[in-house]
Amino acid sequence: MRLVLVDGSGFIFRAFHAIPDMTRPDGVHVNAVFGFCNMIARLMKEHTGSHLAVIFDAGRMTFRNRMYEPYKAHRPEAPPELVPQFALIREAARAFGLPSIELDDWEADDLIAAYAKAALQAGGEAVIVSSDKDLMQLIRPGVTMLDPMKNVPIGEAEVAAKFGVTPDKVIEVQALIGDAVDNVPGVRGIGPKGAAELIGQYGTLEAVLEAAKSGAMKPGKRRDMLVEFADNARISKELVKLRDDAPLPEPVEDLALRHWDDAVLSAFLDTNNFKSIKQRLALSDAPRAEAAAPKAEAAAFGGYETITSMAALTALIEAARQAGFVAVDVQTDDRNSLHGNLLGIALAVAPGRAGYVPLGHNLGLEDTPQLLWPDALGALGALFTDVAVLKIFHDAKYNLEVLTRAGVAQVAPLDDVMLISYAQDAGNFSHDRETLARKHLAHELKSFDSVAGSGRARLSFANVPLAGASAFAAEAADVTLRLWAMLKPLLRVNKSLALYELVEKKLIPVLTAMELHGVMVDRADLRAMSVEFEGRMAEIETDIQRLAGQEFNVGSPKQLGEILFERMGLPGGKRGKAGAWGTDSSVLEGLAEQGIEVAQRVMDWRQLAKLKSTYADALIGQADENGRVHTSFQMAVAATGRLSSTDPNLQNIPIRTVEGARIRKTFIAAPGCSLVSADYSQIELRLLAHVADIAALKESFARGEDIHARTASEVFGVPMAGMDAATRRRAKAINFGIIYGISAFGLGRQLGVGAGEAKAYIDAYFKRYPEIRAYMEATKEEARSQGYVLTPFGRRCWVPRIKDKMPQLRAYAERQAINAPLQGGAADIIKQAMVKLPKAMARAGLSATLILQVHDELLLEAPDDEARAAAELAREVMQGAAEISVPLTVETGIGKNWGDAH
């Protein structure tokens, strides 16, 4: 939850005095209303939350007047031009589809405090849209402020600049200062600077008053005033302290953001003659067709500018500031963001208006000299940190890593078109820029080959002539901008806004930091492991050749096929189109199931060969000068929302094999540090119990029972006490197999029994847990009717082949549909934990660093003396990352290497 709370009452006065007088045709003054509508339109576009409400004062008299009668008694009446606008602004909020909240006897500030507290208690965050100094006391982790007139955030630094103290001490300072406008008395003669000094020295108001009274404070007029007006200070503190226990007129969950009704909003804007706002929101008088995507921009592609002077760069940056947004695309000499050097940056500020800033190209004789990066960095760095300009990327993580390595300190705020698309269409199609341009803009992007050539003649991008490089790069930025304008509004329509804003987008800096940090490997141990694997492969190879009756190259599929199906005459062989025998894993597995030993040994040899090449040998070359390997996490690939890992793939290490454990031991902690592993226990089974509402399983999880023993007891009718390992293992295979829609044949193969016996196990399982079959059938029907299924947290997982004419493909899609809410739900939970964990570590004063995510496991690197505290905090954050109807359990381990910690 990201709850945006608009201080409606505070904004009315600021807008009225800041915006020149305006009247509509009937003479009613509307300058404050116009400012409010402008602010809301911008807010809903650029500072989106999952929940939003506008908070107003219900009246001038509140409980504070009973506490202290002079409170706000001298405030002047509102100007007559403003009075009609109070009701109009409430009407405007309703026209935008926003809750308009007020409560008798309470001030708007108290309601804001109470709603911010409720958001935090719900595991979310709050953004307060106001510049009111009284609200600054609420700023803390998870609660921020945004100045609606300047469109800039207000955080601890701004509070310190204003009050000289941190937000948690603002009340203490205000109690001493008082407030002449609101008749808050304070202590006579003490201003902001003096108050900050006193609170900085003594800590609290009471400590200040006690020091003055006891004589511990230096004698003088200030001490005398503190003694004389101590009661004034205490009543002042009560008056300025916001009450976060105020009743909530509407439950916080009811404040979920909804799109306005176009016809209603259009009518309101017409009545008040706000043509510019209506035009900017692209409103028509016709009812809104929610499912329809906006039309692609008509501006032509091409005619882009090559930026080779500071004047041209400054002009483009100024255009970005005027627009309030800019699409950015970096170009490098290596597609791996952790190795490539920055060659240039493309910027787009409007459809068809884009330019490329070459910075590291090898120039030809005809090329204009390019800008030097140190010169461009000042202007571009200021743009990237400008909070009033939204930076739009496709694959922001890649771009941020390149920019970070090039010396750009920060890029904020930002949007990511790839993740905007992925949040609403995971599994429906690919989310690369080329696919999205083709699908949504009916536009074919220039290929890299079209500017760099192909084959032996291919140029590196650094050597591509600037004209071609600019056309290629600027078009990428232009397409990114157009896709953003089209796809961002659909997040709300497709109910994917919260998922994008609170999970996917917030994960970008977390993964960026993880990838840049990397994980250390023991290169000497990797070399030793390579020798071990090679020795074992040689032993297995000798064994294979003995079983085959002759020597041959085990690594040659052609020779292997001839040995198996010609010399040995084994059954089931099939030739491919080229005439060679097929020897892939499915063929070998089929032979191994028939008890043919040579097939099993070849599979063992291939497994070791793959592990040797993929990990033992490859990781040595992939480690940097510090011995760290930097994997790349793919954020928009898996249909279920899972992250995947490439270059190298660290998520594919076998989990339950001796070799997998051996590989994990080569991942080590830095000197003086330990690795901390935190792993969700049986999370998909827990989600199954939750989504299928299986009372027996929920009860078992709540009691902390052995779920596999419980299942064995329920299905096979044997007591849990003294249960043999084989029976428990059968139940475990069923439990996990059901999640993946396993067939009787598949289960039988796992358990080493016939398909008939396996089917009897499955039938007994469904008889004991009929809720599971009901869930499976309902989920398949949901996929057939909608084309997608939902995780418990609202992620859409598309299942494109659910109606395929081919039975095999349709059955596979049905298994996908059954599993997606469980695997996707687990992905949602661990992603939420990853977003929260770095902040929690920082708040706790711990320097533990998140370095890896492998499905249900997180791996951290922590100083030795912090490892236990980091493990406990990781467990706490992960177990509290989401609320489902069964407890989430996390197992932790600490070790000098991943194998010992896992």
From TrEMBL:
What keywords does the record list, in alphabetical order?
DNA damage, DNA repair, DNA replication, DNA-binding, DNA-directed DNA polymerase, Exonuclease, Hydrolase, Nuclease, Nucleotidyltransferase, Transferase
Keyword hit for Acyltransferase = no
Q: What is its EC number?
A: 2.7.7.7
Q: Where is the 3'-5' exonuclease domain?
A: 304-492
- Domain 5'-3' exonuclease: residue ranges: 1-258
* NCBIfam families given in the database record: pola, PRK05755.1
Q: Where is the DNA-directed DNA polymerase family A palm domain?
A: 660-866
Summarize subunit and interaction data from the UniProt record for this chain: Single-chain monomer with multiple functions.
Keyword Transferase recorded: yes
Q: Which InterPro entries does this chain map to?
A: 3'-5'_exonuclease_dom (IPR002562), 5-3_exonucl_a-hlix_arch_N (IPR020046), 5-3_exonuclease (IPR002421), 5-3_exonuclease_C_sf (IPR036279), DNA-dir_DNA_pol_A_CS (IPR019760), DNA-dir_DNA_pol_A_palm_dom (IPR001098), DNA/RNA_pol_sf (IPR043502), DNA_polI_H3TH (IPR020045)
- Specify the protein name: DNA polymerase I
Role description: In addition to polymerase activity, this DNA polymerase exhibits 3'-5' and 5'-3' exonuclease activity.
Q: Name one Pfam family in it.
A: DNA_pol_A_exo1
Q: Which family does it belong to?
A: Belongs to the DNA polymerase type-A family.
The reaction(s) annotated as catalysed by this protein in its Swiss-Prot or TrEMBL entry are:
DNA(n) + a 2'-deoxyribonucleoside 5'-triphosphate = DNA(n+1) + diphosphate
Question: Which CDD domains does this one have?
Answer: DNA_pol_A_pol_I_C, DNA_polA_I_Ecoli_like_exo, H3TH_53EXO, PIN_53EXO
